[in-house]
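To whoever picks this up:

The parser on our side crashed when reading a file containing two proteins. I've narrowed it down to the boundary between the first structure block and the second sequence. Both blocks are reproduced below exactly, byte for byte. First block:
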Amino acid sequence: MSTIIVRGLDDAVKQQLAAQAKEHGRSMEAEVRAILTKAARRPHIGIALLAAARDVGGIDDLPIPVRNDVAQAVDFE
């Protein structure tokens, strides 16, 4: 197991964490550990989309349109 120290935590955040921990029936340390674990395991949307594309046959055959248009300034008049 690793240990981390969080410095400069706002008192209001600490109070909120303490309230959440009490609500969930665990220590504040256990509450923070649960929050961090859940956040770290959340899937990355880009990786999830890539995996979904691979599951349906990939994206290698999709045509990539040529971008030859020129940006124009907007006329607000």
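<<boundary where parser fails>>
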Amino acid sequence: MSKVLSVVKKCNTVFVISIVAFWMVALVANNYSNSQTLNRTQLDKDIRVYEDDIRLLSARVSELKTTERIENESKKLDLVRVQTQDIFYLDTTDDKVALK
């Protein structure tokens, strides 16, 4: 009978140690999973910010290309280019201008 009790005590100790080890492994795995989720969320946020920047830059490039195209077309047609130093504001409220 004492041999059986000693075997049960040994098995009980092994059982408790294995449960504690299992819970520690599960806790580490859960922590790693949460940190990976946070990293992914941060990367997704960064991607959205960079996509917005790309859209704004694309709009700016289109705007600049339009201005450049107008200037090139005006050169082809021999139109007079207005210099900004030649512009005088007559009235600042209505933004009326006159050329020198």
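After patching the parser it read the second block fine. The CA atoms of residues 59 and 65 lie 10 Å apart. The chain has one domain: 2-99.
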